[in-house]
Amino acid sequence: MTRNQSLAFRLVLFFFGLGIIALAYILFQGGEKPEGKTLFMWLSIGILYLVVSSPFLLSTINVRNFSGKIPSFALIWFDIFAYLGISLIILAVLMLTDFLPLKIAILIQAVALFLFVADLFWAFFAASHARGVAADEAEKLQLLTEAKAASQLLLLSVRALPAAYEKSAALLQKTIEELKYISPVEGARGLESNLVISIQKLKELCGGVPEGAHVNPAQVESEALHLQALVKERKLLRN
Question: Is the pTM of this model over 0.70?
Answer without folding.
Answer: no
